[in-house]
Amino acid sequence: MEFRLSHSFRLDPPASRPAGRDPALAAAEAHRAAGRPDAALATLAALLIRAPDSLPALHLQGVLLTETGAAEPALAPLRRAAALAPEDGRVHYHLGNALLALDRLADAAAAYRAAIAADPGLADAHNNLGNVLRKQGREVAALDAYRAALTHRPGFAPALYNMGLALGQLGEHAAAIDCYRAVLARPPGPGEAEKYRLVRESLAASLVECNDHAGAVEACRAWLAMAPGAALAEWNLGLSLLMQGDFAEGWRLYERRWEIEGFRDESERDQPLPVAPTLAALTGQRVLIRREQGRGDLIQFARYAKLLSRHAACVTLTAYPELVALLGRMPGVAVIDEAAAEPAHDVAVSLMSLPLVLGTTLATVPASVPYLTPDPALVAAWRARLGAVPGVRQVGLCWWGSDHSRRSSIPVEELARLLDLPGFRFHALQPEIPAAQRGFVASRPELVTHEGELVDFDATAALIAALDLVVTIDTSVAHLAGALGRPVLILLRYSPDWRWLRERTDSPWYPTARLFRQGPERDWAGPIRDVRAALAAGATGLPTLGG
User: Is the pLDDT confidence value at 544 over 80?
Assistant: First the structure.
């Protein structure tokens, strides 16, 4: 969320000229200052009946309507005020605020530019113009607007914060951190505490992007000092603790996820928040495990359903339909489609609460693989189809994920250095090839696609089992290969998900995995070069390269 002025970050005088001559206007201003907007608007409505062209009254009416969420009705008095006083920059500025609240970006930008033309030193207008440009995806131009605001008002906290957001969108996270810290270097003014919590949230996020999880932990704890018990702060703190291997506190704080806006499905919002039970409460009971989050999460944490079956009388796991067949072969666990009627049960638990329930530490991660088994008939069919080519290794390749994993995806052209490696045939493990990448893929005969055949995870698992190894980005394929106990080389972005921990080349979750990480330059050339070298040398760091 950006800092918009004046109706969000702070309240500026509603007019650029004093208007104390009319007692009604003075009364409206007093009502506004005392937090009585309805009384202020009623007073202004009566004033405008007898003085319809009162510039201060029109201006204040428009500001009040914008502040109270009535941005559309605010346009008429603000436009009339702007026509009466085209030289008044603050009138144009407040008109821009109303238009921005309505998401009418082009019109808002025009109003802010009119404000700046009338009053070039109006830092508020430069700031909000930057917000419009950033919303339009014009981050570089937005930075110029924020710099102009800071030129006219050095140390201006809203412009510094918004500049940090724009820099973050451009991937310049270190510079964004400097902006956030500059804001926090001064104490918050009246009414600014809530915004300062946003600054600490953004600071923590940028520190994570810079792989500085110790700094992110510090930022989250400072955030919590301002807002004790804040769910988002505790959840973000938990993620950084998990990344650092502090599972004891990390799992506990991870439970705050249910209180994060947008985390629960629409159908779940009226339900009580899930609560992680104790292991004792599950022992000897009929337990229903409800899946959560993505396919990769379900695959990674399905191991806990098998573990729980040692304690519970029976265990049922709900799953995405395309995973039911594969997960259903886990011994001791009944797996049902998430859309099916829930069976009778004594206790329900969310899947990703089970590490907390079972007290998982970094040293006790349940890493026995394989814990998933492909369909033997499908594996045999794939092996027969692929055939054995003397001197050629068959490698599964996944480089592009869903929207959720887009930041981890690799442009297909970046893979040319891998595809040129002699002695390897690559098989796309993606159900579909993005349209923009089809031309490149078609030009590479060494990359075989299987579109239309990888209809579910059972089919994909069988193909993986028939291959020598897998090279993949951080997506469900990485978890699938690891859960099957297959050799898998995983390419990770510079700031990866918490489950891959920091700096390690191995994974406690998947013994057959080897990790290849981006460096601070955040490009894929280095990891791809290292994967190529590992393939060429046959030295994956795994017990075997195939088999």
Answer: no
513-517 and 334-337 as β-strands: parallel, antiparallel, unpaired? unpaired
Q: Are 154 and 189 in contact (CB under 8 A)?
A: no
Considering the domain delimited by 23-170, tell me its CATH architecture: Alpha Horseshoe (1.25)
Query: Are the C-beta atoms of residues 378 and 329 closer than 8 Å to each other?
Result: no
Distance CA 519, CA 534 (A): 18
Strand partners for 232:
none
Q: What is the Cα gyration radius of the chain?
A: 29
Query: CA nearest 161: which of 145, 139, 141, 184?
Result: 184
Sorted by where each begins, the domain ranges of the chain are 23-170, 284-364, 376-537
Q: How many helices, marked H, and strands, marked E, lie in the chain?
A: 25, 10
Q: H-type helices in 210-309, by residue range?
A: 213-226, 231-243, 247-254, 279-282, 295-301, 303-308
CATH number for the domain whose boundaries are 376-537: 3.40.50.2000
> At CB < 8 A and 24+ separation, what contacts does 254-260 make?
254/352, 254/356, 255/353, 255/356, 256/231, 256/232, 257/352, 259/231, 259/232, 259/235, 260/231, 260/232, 260/235
Structure-token match 């810290």, residue found: 181
- Output the pTM of the full model: 0.86
Of 45, 63, 137, 139, the closest CA to residue 101 belongs to: 63
**Can you read off the two tokens belonging to residue 452?**
């239309």
3 state DSSP class of 348: strand
Backbone φ and ψ of 106, nearest 5°: -65, -40
Over the stretch 424-468, which tens digit does the pLDDT of each residue have?
999 999 988 999 999 999 999 999 999 889 999 999 999 999 999
Residue type present at position 443? S
